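re: ur question from earlier - yeah i can do the single chain one, its not a big deal. heres the input i used so u can compare w yours
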Amino acid sequence: MEKMFIKKIATGILFIAFLNGCAQNSAMLGTIITGASSGNVYQAGLSYGTNHLVEKATGRSPVENVIEILKPKNNDNEFEKLVKKRIKKTRKKMNLTNQ
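and the output i got, formated as tokens:
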């Protein structure tokens, strides 16, 4: 178990070191990983195309859009506050189960 964890960390550090200067091309990296792990080229292509369209339309990546949506605002109504609170709880639970 520990060897696998150390391998993942070492691989991550290696990727960061070698791919440090290619931020523009890193959008394809997630798509390639999805295609390789699932074997579904259509899903990977749809994922890349959707991400590209969202970035073109908003000027921000999908992750940046989600972060912006989840930022607390002063004028949030009670429903929005409840949904954001539940999302944070779910994320914490997911992070605990991944460890």
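Helices lie at 2-18, 27-38, 41-58, 62-70, 78-98. not sure if urs matches, ping me
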